Amino acid sequence: MVKFLIGIGIPYVAVVVMLPWVNTVNTNVFGVPFIYFWMFMWMILTSACLLTCWIFFDSKNSEADD
Fold first, then answer.
1. How far is Cα 49 from Cα 9, in angstroms, rounded to an integer?
2. In Å, how far are 2, 39, 61 from 44, measured between CA atoms?
3. Which helix (H) or strand (E) holds 63?
4. Chain-centre distance of CA 17, in angstroms?
5. Residues of 29-61 as b/e, b for ≥16 C-beta within 10 angstroms?
6. CB 54, CB 64: distance < 8 Å
7. How far apart, in whole angstroms, are the C-alpha atoms of residue 32 and residue 38?
8. pTM listed for this prediction
9. For 6-65, what is each residue's pLDDT tens digit?
10. Cα dihedral sign for 28, 31, 36, 41?
């Protein structure tokens, strides 16, 4: 259950639930509107969440398969 929350839950909350709040922010980050910056960063952070799940939960299973 924990790996589901890390791998799917955190990115879902950040992208879907927080999107109405992100849409109200009227600032630029590196010359890019904040909403685009937010979405781009969460593409990278979602990969980091999935990597975290793999390292802590699934990497031990793949070593046993070798």
1. 10
2. 20, 9, 25
3. helix 59-65
4. 13
5. eeeeeeeebbeeebeeebeebbeebeeeeeeee
6. no
7. 10
8. 0.76
9. 888 999 999 999 999 999 999 999 999 999 999 999 999 999 999 998 888 877 766 555
10. negative
